[in-house]
Design goal:
Keywords: Coiled coil. The protein is mainly alpha-helical. The protein has one domain (about 25-310). It contains eleven helices and four strands. The protein has helices at about 1-50, 55-70, 75-85, 90-105, 115-125, 130-135, 135-145, 205-215, 220-225, 230-250, 280-285, and strands at about 155, 175-180, 185-190, 305-310. It has a two-stranded antiparallel sheet with strand order 1-4. Strands 2-3 form a two-stranded antiparallel ribbon. It is globular, with a radius of gyration of 23 Å.
Length: about 300
């Protein structure tokens, strides 16, 4: 009996140690998530203050472009002012980051999930002033193209405006709109809220044609995984799959809009050239894979440069 009792005690002790170890790991993960969430809240507030204090070069440039274009082209004054909002915390780019943080904070905390920590890591990258400044090159270059070449492009090699409809840098960016599919199965870009007025100025954009012929933009070529939520990436992937299948049934060839990077980037911050986590697994599972050593967070934080004059 004493031997049996001793064996039972040993088993109970082993189980207790195992459960204690698991509990300890969960506690550590939860502490890491809590700390990362607090850091993200602080960094979002720091980004907000940096915008308000004029500490982000491209935000200041976007404000200036907006003012100049309102003066040069009164017919586009409303649109110019609207696009210029991205230089503030009221713009869709900043608000998109704030919304993603709230979505992460609302995720179930029990049991703690390592994917939550990974989502926070990528989101905090997007909050870095250098990367946020790079993301602002899209609205900046949109205004530059609307100026008929009198305003310089930023972070883009091309000196020629691509046309207001063809080269619209904000198309495909879920912070500004979404793809809507009609009864014929054809998807067109639909602007959000106040941005609907852009539809009165720019030509309608059909997804299949855009996928094949889209021009360079920071979001679509460099920033998509930092400035999109997992749900938004999943939606993009689903649309791409449906369109490819539709083209195959019609005997047509479909070109993915993300098959390769379009040329045109110049003078972006070093962080923009550093890949995020594994993209294929992110698209399939709507979660970021674990990052290896040498995270983007350790990369340079210099602001974007490389202004090219319009023709």
């Amino acid at each position: 009996m004493s031997k049996i009792k001793a064996w039972e005690l040993i088993c109970l002790f082993s189980v207790f140690c195992f459960l204690s170890g698991c509990s300890s790991k969960e506690e550590q993960l939860q502490q890491s998530i809590t700390q990362a969430t607090q850091n993200a809240e602080q960094e979002l507030n720091e980004l907000k203050n940096a915008l308000a204090l004029g500490q982000i070069r491209n935000a200041n440039l976007l404000k200036e472009y907006s003012r100049v274009l309102q003066s040069q082209r009164p017919d586009l004054a409303q649109i110019s002012a609207l696009i210029g909002q991205d230089a503030t915390s009221k713009g869709p780019l900043f608000q998109g980051l704030a919304q993603r943080l709230e979505e992460i904070k609302s995720l179930p905390s029990t049991p703690p999930n390592v994917q939550t920590l990974q989502l926070l890591d990528v989101l905090r990258d997007a909050m870095k002033p250098s990367l946020f400044g790079d993301a602002l090159t899209d609205p900046i270059n949109m205004l530059a193209d609307m100026s008929n070449g009198t305003l310089a492009r930023v972070g883009a090699i091309s000196k020629n405006a691509e046309g207001e409809g063809e080269g619209n840098q904000l198309v495909g960016n879920p912070n500004y709109g979404q793809w809507q599919t009609n009864s014929s199965g054809i998807s067109f870009w639909q602007w959000y809220g106040m941005y609907r007025i852009l539809g009165d100025v720019f030509d309608a954009v059909e997804y299949g044609r855009w996928s094949k012929r889209r021009k360079y933009s920071y979001y679509n070529d460099y920033g998509r995984y930092r400035y999109s939520s997992p749900k938004q990436i999943k939606t993009q992937t689903a649309l791409e799959t449906r369109t490819r299948q539709s083209y195959q049934r019609q005997g047509k060839q479909f070109t993915s809009p993300y098959a390769k990077k379009r040329s045109g980037a110049s003078g972006l911050s070093r962080s923009s050239y550093t890949p995020t986590s594994t993209r294929s697994s992110y698209a399939k599972s709507s979660s970021y894979s674990k990052r290896s050593a040498g995270s983007v967070r350790n990369s340079s934080s210099r602001t974007s440069r490389g202004v090219s004059r319009g023709k």
